[in-house]
Amino acid sequence: MPVIEMKNLGIEYVGAFTRTPAVRNLSLTIHTGEVYGLVGESGCGKTTAAMACVRYLPKGTLLTGEVIFLGKSILGLSDSELRHLRGNRVAMVYQDPLAALNPSLNIESQMAEILTTHEHISARAAHELCREMLERVRIGDAERVMRSYPHQLSGGMQQRVLIAMALLLKPALLIMDEPTTGLDVTIEAAVLDLVDDLRREFNTAILFISHNLGVIARLCQRVGVMYAGEMVEEASVEQLFKSPRHPYTLALLRCIPSLGTDKRTHSLWSIPGRVPPLSSLPPGCVFAPRCPLAQPQCTEHTPELQDIGQGRRTRCMFYDQVDPVAFDAYLGERMATQRQAETEHERLLTVRDLKVYFQPASGLFSIGKRPMIKAVDGISFDIARSGTLGIAGESGCGKSTTARTVAGLNPITSGTITFAGHDLNQPVQKRPRSILSQLQMVFQNPDSTLNPQKTVEQELLRPLRLLGVVKREQESEAISQLLKAVNLDDTYRQRYPAQLSGGEKQRVAIARAFAGRPKLVLCDEPISSLDVSVQSTILNLLLRLQQDYDVAMMFISHDLGVVRYLSDNVAIMYLGTICELGRADQVFTPPHHPYSEALLSAIPIPDPTVRQARIRLQGSVPSPTNPPSGCRFHTRCPRKVGAICEQTPPPAQEREGHIIYCHIPWEELKSAQTTQA
Ligand code: SF4
Ligand code: SF4
User: Fold this and answer.
1) By Cβ atoms counted within 10 A, which residue in 111, 128, 439, 665 is the most buried?
2) Residue 366 pLDDT grade (very low, low, confident, very high; cuts 50, 70, 90)
3) pLDDT at 427 over 50
4) Are 554 and 518 in contact (CB under 8 A)?
5) What digits encode the pLDDT tens for the residues 618-654?
6) For residues 404 and 410, is the Cβ–Cβ distance under 8 A?
7) Beta strand 72-73 pairing with 61-69
8) Mutation pick for ligand 1 pocket among 275, 293, 299, 301 (CB with most ligand atoms within 8 Å)
9) Whose CA is closest to 650, among 589, 562, 574?
10) Separation of 630 CA from ligand 2 center, angstroms?
11) Which CATH superfamily is domain 2-220 in?
């Protein structure tokens, strides 16, 4: 039964002198118990279209066409009817749960308010219903969570609370807008399982917006791909991933690094150009300026969304030429970015038994000395000249602390860091200038590192001067070259950060890192806040710069697909320690450390035909102030072998440089994981 039907929906923002068509001619239907995925880059109109389901749009927005909810048009509803619809029949879950929760009310008050406002039931009955719903979203300690305030809960727990709140009134339609973006991969997997279970249990129709195709493949039955305000393809999830019929869909699929690929065998595709501004769309097919299959007719005629059988629709005139095999061959020709230089096996960075402990900030009422936070607790690794070490693990595992300590931003508690033969045990202020220029860092959020008051030129000039890289008369040319290296032109010189997109800011941050001619660049989650197509651009850019400038990289990411793609060697960290270390091909082939195994099983694979044997880790990461005895992973390990795991630190088992810290013998681990796979 259709729950929501959009028919030729048009959404236009009308200004005093302008009209901006945000969504054009959108038609889609979502049935009970169906998860419908809406994908596309930022600015494609996904969220705007979803908001039209409940007419949550800014004043002055013009809606045309039809939106029918359970057989009734919502475009003609009065304000009070709309309020009733939003509160009772349609619920929404957004990306940032903390922003959606009221920080000054505890969870019970926020949940109960929904019930007492819409259902007029007693406080006692509301309490019971809230507890029951929290238990249904698998919150074990519901009473405690109800008494908690939002900031006292983890991100995953906050998102579960929001889902429970959304389901309290048993809505017919649930709109989820990037609900797992920003969550760790294991928490994301748990939230997706939960959404799937709840869909079955409540038979709710779900509109699921995501830029992550792996998530879409895991959860959705049908998928609509949006580009520049239009739907360009619609199909069942299996059809879409197996044989996309629009070049944009195929290009999106080729932007994702997956576990089977690495930089030696596959180049990541970056869709050239950007989504056009909605106020000045190109003539003909709006995707033509970026389309690898574009032909002269594409700019002369506007393609319609046509039915191509088997319930599929596409907006491409040449859809029968969209062939993944031919496309891959084309990519192979165009993207000869494979690295030529052999990795030199000379060590550039050597870290031995590094410990970084912090004194926790004392609270207003804390008495006496509090236990130290053991953020990094005895790790050792090397990075070869021109090589890449990828470090992966959940939030709080110590990977960022490791990078910041190597960069000199955290003091070392004990252990040694040696860089190109120099002792790096001093903080950044005491390091010689030659070392500063050779060791640079790229952070996750360029906003926090670019000075909003400085132009791009000033940002790049600073390291050039400070580190004495070139003579004064060569500075301007050096800036041009840096901009060119990150695919920006001289028109960007006078722009301020506020005038740049997220991807452009990160390019400037990367150019700044490379300005000092570094030997090692430490990249701390440099792509996680960017769109998927921008992510691949930045990854390819980093790879090219690494090759051109011959630098080594430490690349930190919670995305194992990205780590696999980029890295020569990989370290998996858990609670301040390394639990597995080796060449990338070794770490991604059994035997795995049980923690690596769980992380690998939690990665969404962008192929709906692949059913993963998922390992759900119980509980959360223990506190680094009081880490578990023996093996740190024993409180959550699905393969725990007994008391030895709790009492004795696991030994390092090593084969050809591949190290796993575990009490389970190597061959036993390998045989269990190979059979299971
Ligand atoms: S119509 Fe032409 S430009 Fe548009 S997607 Fe198809 S081939 Fe590309
Ligand atoms: S040592 Fe024990 S608890 Fe730790 S990973 Fe191995 S089996 Fe699991």
Assistant:
1) 439
2) low
3) yes
4) no
5) 777 888 888 999 999 999 999 999 899 999 999 999 9
6) yes
7) antiparallel
8) 293
9) 574
10) 9
11) P-loop containing nucleotide triphosphate hydrolases (3.40.50.300)
- pLDDT single digits (tens) 443-459: 888 877 888 899 999 99
Most informative mutation of 252, 295, 298 for ligand 1 (most atoms within 8 A of CB): 298
Cβ atoms of 90 and 54 closer than 8 Å: yes
Any atom of ligand 1 within 6 Å of the Cβ of 291: yes
| Helix-helix angle 475-485:456-466, to 10 degrees | 120
- Ligand 2 centroid to Cα of residue 593, in Å, is 8
Among 55-59, 379-383, 452-456, 632-636, the minimum mean pLDDT is found in: 55-59
Structure tokens at 591: 């035997």
Q: How far apart (Å, rounded) are the C-alpha atoms in residues 281 and 277?
A: 6
Residue 637 near ligand 2, beta carbon < 6 Å? yes
Q: Predicted ipTM?
A: 0.66
347-570 CATH choice from 3.30.479.10, 3.40.50.300, 3.40.50.1100, 3.30.450.40: 3.40.50.300
Mean pLDDT for 150-175 is 85
Residue 266 has pLDDT above 60, yes or no: no
Ligand nearest to the CA of 317: 1
Strands (DSSP E) along 228-346, which ranges?
230-236, 306-307, 313-314
pLDDT in tens, 284-325: 999 998 888 888 899 999 999 999 999 999 999 999 888 887
Domains 2-220 and 347-570 share a fold: yes
The residue ranges of every structural domain in the chain are 2-220, 250-334, 347-570, 590-676
Phi, psi of 221, rounded to the nearest 5 degrees: -95, -45
